[in-house]
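user: Kindly work through both lines:
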Amino acid sequence: MERDVKRFVDACPTCAQNKPSNQPPAGLLQPLLVPKRPWSHIALDFVTGLPTSHGLSPFQCCLGYQPPVFPAQEEDVGVPSAQAFIRRCRRTWKRTRSTLLRVQARVKVQADRHRSKAPHYVQGQRVWLSTRDLPLKVVSPKLNPRFIGPYPISKVLGGSSEAPLPPPLRRIHPTFHVSRIKPFVCRPICLAPKPPPPVWSICNLLSNV
């Protein structure tokens, strides 16, 4: 009995569109690859003012030494030869990369505690699309369904999926993270909801009397 009720609720379109989920967001954290040397990869991050977690400034990570602040410190950063400069840079890059890998692994473990593994999606599979952050024109946001669709997946891109949207949402980029979609379940045990009855005006009712 419990299994049948769960199967019915999972396939119920009304429940799928309006029932909130008590599960963590889908999609585990996928960190970027840590480069082996400076300027081999360029990324943009809008988060600023973060302290360095490895004790090295960006200048030292690139050149292998801290910039001299006083004239007396210039002798400490003097480069006797190009080979010595390269060895110092490589030692700094290796230290920086190992520290970034440790921090990255620690952050992933902490982030995945509040996430769940995403279902496996394939091209052509139908999914429900979350209405969160969608500019839907509704009378009241409280009456807005939590999910709309279902829409077929046209392409799977790593942790994201592309789905063709209806004309009112054509201005939105059709790529969505796995946390913004959920599988569409269709089973014979759950019948499709019937369309609502037509709305009759007073004139139509009087004309049919």
Summary: The CA atoms of residues 1 and 62 lie 64 Å apart. DSSP finds five helices and six strands in the chain.
